[in-house]
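[job 4471] stage=fold_predict status=RUNNING
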Amino acid sequence: MIKKRTISLAALAALTGTFGSGSAYGQVEEIVVTATKRVQTTQDVPVTVTALGAAQLQDLRISSFTDYLQQLPNVTAQGRGPGQQIITVRGLGSSSFPVFLSGANGKTPNVALYLDEQPVTMPGRNLDVYATDLERIEVLPGPQGTLFGASSQAGTVRLITKKPVMNQWQAGFSATVSTTKDGEMSNKQEAYINAPVVEDKLAFRLALFNDSQGGYIDNVAGTKALDPSVNPRFLPGNAGHQAGADLSDVTFLDASNTDLVEEDFNDALYRGLRLSGKWFINDAWDLEVTHMRQNLDADGVFDYDPAVGDLDVRRYTADELGEKWHNTAWTLTGRLAFLEMVYTGGYLDRDVDQSIDYTGYANVGPYIPYYICDLAVSYPEAGQDPSGTCQPPNLNTHNIQSVRKQTHELRFNTPEDYRLKATFGAFYDHLKLEDMGDFGYYGSQYVLDREGRRGFAQNAPLPGATTINPNPRDPGVVFFNDVTRTEEQIAVFGEATFEVVPGLWDVSFGARWFDIDVDLRGSSNTGFGNLAGDGGDSDNGNNLDQRLAAFRPAEEQDVIFKAGTTFTPTDNLLFFFTWSQGFRPGGLNRGCSPDTEVPCTYATDELTNYELGWKIDLFDRTVRFNGAAFFMDWEKVQASVFAPEIVGSNLNFNDNAADAEVWGIEGDLTWAVTQGLTLSGAFTYLDTEITALADTGSIAIAPVGSELSTAPNFQGNLRARYTWFVGDYQLHTQTQVSYASSAYSDIVLAERRKMDDYATWNLSAGVRKDRWRAELFAQNLTDTRAELFISTQDDSPRTFTNRPRTWGLRVGYDF
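[job 4471] inference complete, writing structure tokens
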């Protein structure tokens, strides 16, 4: 027990560091990681790992998802703002259909996200965990499937929280205020307290945060009407709709956003807490329990429309996001004979309530006339030109998602001093995602049905289908989803390392057997002008319980492997070679039928990785250069496409669209120049290529030879930090430059847009005395509009960008 506690405190001391990220002796600091589910330093673990320790997280003012992704050159994201992003590692990106419209339809991510020991990965959107009071962030690029499971095909991102410390009262707070060019003020407060309760036995730690992020995007005035010249599918192929039909007798009413015009309307607020406790039960066993709660509230949108103006959009209905989640996790550690046993589990409960302006669907929706136009437009008599009125297209979708996820893992470790070191165990995961989406067409209550009656159906779930909400929807909801997705997996895994020549040469081998079931139930329904009481269009084939009966569940059983060797000629040199496999589960498509191109199932995509890595410390550990060269072969790449014309459920479908390969090299270099000056940098170079297209051709993607999505050829950053003393005052200054070359937003041709290269520059300076600290900072000094992602949802391309130039002050105190 004493040895265990000594290791924990030593690791904490190394991770906490000082306000600067270099050591007091002019050497590069050591960071302890658990990348192989054993405690090792970054220089001792034969795995490529990028780690941001507690001192670096503080130096870089990292709080949210976007903050830490921008510090990692081998990591990018596809997304549209807080709570709506998908991680990409080493350029292994394909398509990014924004499945927040229907999360149950989403592909499983190919990058695993862990909160301590618990995987919190889920379809549709990553959990946007606020990064407060963390020990470190670990990024493990490349397949990590043998130890970390299904979604770690392209890599694993781990957020490691600070744990309770025995026998020490600790407390502290920090407060930040900042102003953004042409935007609103922002402020955040963070605090922590570590409370020992029973000496050497029990302690608790509490972290609190409140981060109010001011807006910087304007919703500007405008109008919009249905425009057949923009949407050529405005007049579907009905008998009376001939090519070149005369629309002069059709009245198109404008939607106006006058009531919603607002400057800086994209506010976000993160609030929450994390409470953890650690109990040393006896000399052999200890228990950690952590509970975290987080609320995220956001208004507006976080991408702008360049066609409207710089940081401007036109939105015609309210955009609002309310997300709350709580997570309870536990880790029981002890010894059974010579084995260390670890049982870890967790339960996650997440609820999302989001309203989204859907007016852009008028540009692409094939059924718009049926939804918001009078009878004479929707159903003209044969041979006659249409006439009548089409209501304003101020469309909206209201989405409610509920996720319940539990995980359990039991694993064993052999002692560190054995020549044969092994980690092995079993894993269980169960996820249930309930997804309801109501698509509102506010003019629809005036639509005439086939018999000339006014009104619209209060559509209800289809008879015999699994339901979340069995009640009819409100008038004006002309289409809705009521879909439940479940995923269940069990796995047995193990990795073993044998010291062929102790201290010089090791070989390793790993494997994971898994069984994964994915199920999809529920229904979608629409009315097409039926009045309340008519039952809606109950024969439209969107009863998923019936449609997918022969394919449910989508089950996958297989084994993946990993092998490698490590050579350590000196204490300061380590070289390793790894061959590893990764996978991402397939699933079900709700819109499949024999009459369409949509497959009922899509298969697992598979990745094989070949990697040569190195860990090098030079000049008395004042210079560190870590890196890896790799080749990855990606087969049966999953892609998504928005295809309302052919998908019966009116949204998207997934399929295995291509094969691809990635060549790359990545590295990070740190130089402790003097006791106070540290220079550091990191880079990734990628050569990604689509090598083959699927025979089915169900999804039109970029041709062979094209780059993958969100895969810049080069990304890198350089940072310099200098710390010195003036009397009792410790001062510092820091500057950082980041660069990313151009990239593409998607591999699907209809959604593919080129994103320009960009560079950003940050600067900070601060002072510390005793327990007080203060810092002035400037982010994005050049006010660059980085094209982080371009979304083409509803045929209205918008650019997700970084925050404009921001100045701020941060102060803190540690008791």
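[job 4471] summary: The first helix runs from residue 2 to 16.
[job 4471] exit 0
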